[in-house]
Design goal:
The chain is an alpha/beta fold. The chain is built from 16 helices and 10 strands.
Length: about 425
């Protein structure tokens, strides 16, 4: 059995091609996975389809046959020729495939390195495949390890900590100038587009209260309903009053001219920090020296700096991915059933022989009967281990086998070098095993 990944991403396709390859609904995904799993050479498959990538992740006994059916499936789905698909695709096999999945989960293969959305998308793709019977133990092992790897990358590096969007950078800058904590402050958000929504989300996540202003109240209320608590909506005509009352202001409208003029600003006696995220700008030049204005270009410098920091952190992250890839294959070796059964039987035999020797030495057993007693005790242990052995073999190909084998290894103190069963967490699978 080998792992194979066929990948189309922002690295090898443009948006036009990715639109043709994308799977927009579950019916399309089911059709594609059903088609791929029609051949016996593929036993499990996951289809990951996002705005930046379409990937098949499969376990197969015949990589060549697997590639043929995957490309043919994508050909029928997209209308692109098999030759074009083969020429564009990045294909990874076995160790390379596992390394790629770990890198994707860790957001090292994303358009914006360090973004966190891909982990959720991969988890959704795995959940869909698992719930519908398209994958089981073999790919579950890879995905579990991938999430564990991604968690260590996030915890051991700063790859996801520095904001790389203008909206996130604005909130991070606000937090810095307000002493490192936005809790209890109120941020005014002007506009009801995507940028305003992201700003509101980041502010609320940082414990900040939010008041949204927009010419169309319904759009502002929609953001408030989506983001949740600590958000109020005020009419747009009330904006001049509020900007002279609060310290933080974020504007991101599509207005062709400035919506906040110098005449609207009254001296407030405290520092105010206004973030103008609009192009053209929403805030004209303000004469009050206690009003500090941050425009898109100012924030873009922060974003660019953070992007460079993320690239530096990516090198450290790839070292982690490489280590996890090696550990994964060592772990697979440790999960083989037959060596474990052999080890348990050997321990039983050694214990029996030791007790017989001790009994002979103390005179409990005549030496001339030793051979027969050894045979008797050995047969007793073989009979005792018959059911556990049968049970272990029965679960060998099931997802819960990993946990059972790790438990057996712990109980019998066999290979203690790698025990991942109690290290990785996958709530989805754990819930399945509890049933």
């Amino acid at each position: 059995m080998q792992y194979v990944v066929v990948s189309f991403s922002h690295k090898n396709t443009d948006i036009v091609v990715r639109e043709k390859l994308s799977f927009s609904n579950e019916e399309e995904k089911r059709k594609a996975l059903d088609n791929v799993l029609e051949i016996r050479d593929i036993n499990e498959a996951i289809l990951l389809s996002t705005c930046n990538r379409v990937e098949f992740i499969v376990s197969t006994s015949n990589p060549s046959a697997a590639l043929d059916i995957i490309f043919m499936t994508l050909h029928h789905h997209s209308g692109l020729s098999v030759e074009e698909l083969e020429g564009r695709a990045d294909v990874y096999e076995d160790e390379g495939a596992v390394h790629h999945v770990f890198a994707v989960a860790s957001s090292l293969d994303s358009l914006v390195v360090g973004e966190t959305q891909i982990a959720g998308q991969l988890k959704d793709a795995f959940r869909f495949a698992y719930e519908n019977g398209y994958c089981g133990q073999k790919l579950a092992r890879v995905i579990h390890f991938a999430f564990k790897c991604a968690a260590e990358v996030r915890n051991s590096t700063d790859i996801s900590k520095s904001p790389v969007s203008v909206a996130a950078a604005a909130v991070a800058q606000a937090k810095e100038v307000m002493g490192g904590n936005l809790g209890g402050f109120t941020g005014l958000v002007v506009g009801a587009g995507e940028m305003s929504r992201i700003v509101a989300q980041h502010l609320v996540a940082n414990g900040c209260n939010v008041i949204i202003f927009n010419r169309t109240m319904e759009k502002a209320k929609a953001i408030a309903d989506e983001v949740g608590e600590r958000i109020d909506v005020e009419p747009f005509h009330a904006l001049p009053e509020f900007i002279n009352r609060y310290r933080l202001l974020f504007t991101a409208t599509g207005a062709p001219e400035a919506i906040i003029s110098d005449e609207m600003v009254q001296h407030a006696g405290f520092d105010r920090h206004w973030f103008d995220l609009a192009v053209p700008r929403d805030i004209e030049v303000i004469s009050d020296d206690k009003v500090h204005i941050y425009a898109v270009d100012d924030l873009q410098q922060i974003v660019d700096t953070n992007m460079k920091l993320r690239q530096e952190q990516a090198r450290k992250a790839y070292e982690i991915v490489g280590r996890y890839t090696r550990d994964f294959f060592k772990w697979l070796q440790s999960l083989m059933i037959e060596p474990l059964i052999k080890e348990i039987r050997l321990q039983a035999k050694e214990a029996a022989m030791a007790e017989v020797s001790r009994a002979v030495k103390k005179g409990f057993i005549p030496p001339e009967t030793r051979e027969n007693v050894e045979r008797l005790v050995h047969n007793a242990f073989k009979k005792f281990l018959h059911v556990p052995t049968k049970q272990l073999k029965a679960v060998a190909d099931q997802p819960r086998a990993d946990t059972i084998i790790e438990a057996m290894k712990y109980v019998f103190q066999t290979d203690t070098d790698i025990r991942m069963g109690d290290k990785y967490k996958c709530e989805f699978i754990m819930k399945d095993e509890i049933k």
